[in-house]
Amino acid sequence: MAKDSAMQKMVDTSAVTATVTDEPFMTRLWDVIHTFYPLGFVAFGGPQAHIAILRDHLVIKHNWMGEDEFTELFAIGQGLPGPTSTQLVVSCATSRAGPIGGCVALFMWNLPGLIVCTVCGVLSTSVLDPNDPPFFLAGLAPAAIALLFKAAYGFSGKLDKLGATMALISCVVSVIIAGDETIDKGVCQWVYPLLLILGSLFTLVDSKRSNPIGTYKGASSGWDADNDLTFRRIGIPLWVGFAIFVFWALLLAACLIYRSNNDSFNTGGYLPLFECMYRVGSIIFGGGQVVLPMLYGEVVDTGWISKDTFYQGFALAQSLPGPLFNFSSFVGGAYLGVGGALVAYIGLFGPGVILIFAMMPFWATLRQTAWFKAVLVGLNSTAIGFIFAACILMWQSAVANAASAAAFCVAGSMALVYKFPAPACIFGGGVVGAILKLVELGQKPY
């Protein structure tokens, strides 16, 4: 008996030592570069489809982390203002190669869409008709949505009955808000964070009961479950994380003070443009679609750009890979040229990126504590409900005819049955959609 215990102790010690041993920083940074350099070119389909692409690459293909950790980071991004998919890119890369890795991944993720939006904004060119996209884009959105369905199915396998119920509630609420035209979409600003908070509080209270409803377990084994490897990789001390948060709050306060004390704000310029974008980026929950009504009044009603230019830019950003927040560079470019594009881009993306860097050391430190584990269970379950809601809502907008349905089926089969990587699935579905668009088959709307 004592011998068995000693042997088990040796095995446990060996396992811990193995998890503590880390790869060199340059190796991990190269992993970030090698993983993210193609994604900026194939990340079609909007923020929720991006989650599916990232899961395929980071969890399944490259095994950077487990399902639990990935969903935790996704849930944290959902709970913060800013672009969720971009925050997930930054947080995952930071957990691999620190702040430098996070910044490199951010650059690669945004670059293709940023360049196109900036150029088109500066030229003020009507590139796309929102109702009739070019044939080569026809199958890309349905293909990306197929990967989103795959991701939702993969996430659902980890839910117990309590988690499934919480996911169902957040899914239903999200579908109703987004699908009912009589509901002001601005309610997303407080409904989505409220759902995450309530889900977290419920599982926290339930975990304290003698006979809890849910199942509460530790983090995924094999990925920093017994040591501070992730905290050391992130490389941001707790006090620095707090200082980053204070910097975000002070900059937001400065923007609000400037806005309230500047009577000539509507005359425009670089500083008003940055203030507008930073303020919107600091309060926006619910993803890129919520940007549309919030920015419209800021940049169109003030006369910075025309209504037609605004919608042309939004259509362009929706048709490109990468985050929809790249729309900011089109607006800035159409208003003040290349300099305006960069100012608007930094202003809108800045708050979300700053906040995710601020949160990373706290997440890495607390995720092994019992109460924080319980909170993450509620966050994860609620966030998974948002993914299922996205499946429903994006199906309606992306799969509008038989041709797009065919592209969806091809990409989904490639992903689920034949195990092709995400870029190949998107390319395959895109080819099918493009061919059917050219020969005019299956184009009649449902």
From TrEMBL:
<keyword id="KW-1133">Transmembrane helix</keyword>
<keyword id="KW-0812">Transmembrane</keyword>
<dbReference type="GO" id="GO:0005886">
    <property type="term" value="C:plasma membrane"/>
</dbReference>
<keyword id="KW-1003">Cell membrane</keyword>
<dbReference type="InterPro" id="IPR014047">
    <property type="entry name" value="Chr_Tranpt_l_chain"/>
</dbReference>
<comment type="similarity">
    <text>Belongs to the chromate ion transporter (CHR) (TC 2.A.51) family.</text>
</comment>
<feature type="transmembrane region" description="Helical">
    <location>
        <begin position="370"/>
        <end position="395"/>
    </location>
</feature>
<feature type="transmembrane region" description="Helical">
    <location>
        <begin position="190"/>
        <end position="207"/>
    </location>
</feature>
<feature type="transmembrane region" description="Helical">
    <location>
        <begin position="238"/>
        <end position="259"/>
    </location>
</feature>
<dbReference type="InterPro" id="IPR003370">
    <property type="entry name" value="Chromate_transpt"/>
</dbReference>
<dbReference type="Pfam" id="PF02417">
    <property type="entry name" value="Chromate_transp"/>
</dbReference>
<keyword id="KW-0472">Membrane</keyword>
<feature type="transmembrane region" description="Helical">
    <location>
        <begin position="106"/>
        <end position="128"/>
    </location>
</feature>
<feature type="transmembrane region" description="Helical">
    <location>
        <begin position="162"/>
        <end position="178"/>
    </location>
</feature>
<protein>
    <recommendedName>
        <fullName>Chromate transporter</fullName>
    </recommendedName>
</protein>
<feature type="transmembrane region" description="Helical">
    <location>
        <begin position="134"/>
        <end position="155"/>
    </location>
</feature>
<feature type="transmembrane region" description="Helical">
    <location>
        <begin position="334"/>
        <end position="358"/>
    </location>
</feature>
<dbReference type="GO" id="GO:0015109">
    <property type="term" value="F:chromate transmembrane transporter activity"/>
</dbReference>
<feature type="transmembrane region" description="Helical">
    <location>
        <begin position="420"/>
        <end position="439"/>
    </location>
</feature>
